[in-house]
Amino acid sequence: MRTFIPIFMIFSSLVFGDYTVETLSKSPRIMLIHNFLTDEECEYFIREATPNLERAVVVDPEGDQSDGLVVDQRTSDGAYLLNFEDPILHRVEKRIARLTKTSIDQGEPLQVLHYKKGGEFKPHYDYFDTSTAGGVECTLVGGQRYASLVMYLNTPAKGGETVFPEAGVKVVPKKRDALLFYNCHPEGEPDPMSLHGGAPVVEGEKWIVNKWIRMEKYR
Hints:
The chain is 16% helix and 31% strand. The longest helix is centred in the middle third of the chain and has 14 residues, at 87-100. The chain has 4 helices and 15 strands. The model is unreliable at 1-11 (pLDDT under 50).
């Protein structure tokens, strides 16, 4: 098992390369990264994902993860970016690994999500519920989802905030910013304080790209 270092102990309110990291909460661990992406990268993600968008799904607790479940809890369209040789994609992957002190192979493929007006993702956990067959099945390909990174590709006209009900944290999406939070404690146990959701988009639309980081090599 790889060793994880709590990032707020390293980067709290510090400038790191071309971006800055602001600690929003230590329980759960939540960091807002200002100017993590460039305008070019934001436009690239939207352009590459648009032709392949499909209704986003969630983990099927009964087990079969080949298709997942379509639920009203998550009303967005999504597409995975799988062209790993693309220089822009590779550049962002390296930046994520450097930020999180993990290796690229611990990350799931980047997923772009598009929320139209009214679209939302009700409060949920990113870590897998290992009391269910579906949760156990998911951990077999890389272990638990240790951390999540949400990168904002545009600034919605109104709404679409990322909310953490248990922590009392609300983040307004802003183009180029990213939100890093840890779904588990440093020792790997799921953190129930990491409950989070995407508030409904009131005006305009919201584009984000997600990165989920595993405890082990993702395969």
